[in-house]
Amino acid sequence: MKKKLTLTVQEDVIKYAKRQAKRRGISVSQMFEEAIGKEEINEIETESQRAAKRLLKNLEDAESIETRDDKKLIRDHVERKFT
């Protein structure tokens, strides 16, 4: 169950929190929950960190490609070049 919480902080901290939340596309409340409410999250993720996580997930989900032998590739290239 969610409840409302009132905090008293400096005005510049409020402005900074709102800018950060807007940049991340979340509410200040959600940002506060991520920073304080969950033990496994030690710091607020930046957009770059979230993008890196998405990239890693995409790479893990991607199908692997056929690997080819380097020596065979070189041999094939030389054959094509000189024939």
Description of the molecule:
By secondary structure, the protein is mostly helical. It has one domain (11-82). It is 63% helix and 0% strand. The radius of gyration is 25 Å and the shape is rod-shaped. It starts with 10 loop residues before the first helix and ends with a helix. The model has no long low-confidence stretch (mean pLDDT 86).
What's the short version?
This protein has 83 residues and is an all-alpha fold. It has helices spanning 11-24, 28-37, 47-61, 70-82.
Could you give the topology of this structure?
Layout: H1 11-24, H2 28-37, H3 47-61, H4 70-82
Key phrases:
single chain, 83 residues, mainly alpha
Query: In DSSP terms, counting alpha (H) and pi (I) runs of 4 or more, how many helices?
Result: 4
**H and E order:** HHHH
- The helix content is 55-70%
- Total strand segments: 0
The poorly predicted ranges are none
Q: Multimeric state of these chains?
A: single chain
**What's the number of domains?**
1
**Which structural class fits the helix and strand makeup?**
mainly alpha
**Per the principal axes of the C-alpha atoms, what is the gross shape?**
rod-shaped
* Percent strand: under 5%
Mean pLDDT: 86
Largest sheet composition: none
Span between N and C termini?
Answer: 75 Å
Output the radius of gyration.
25 Å
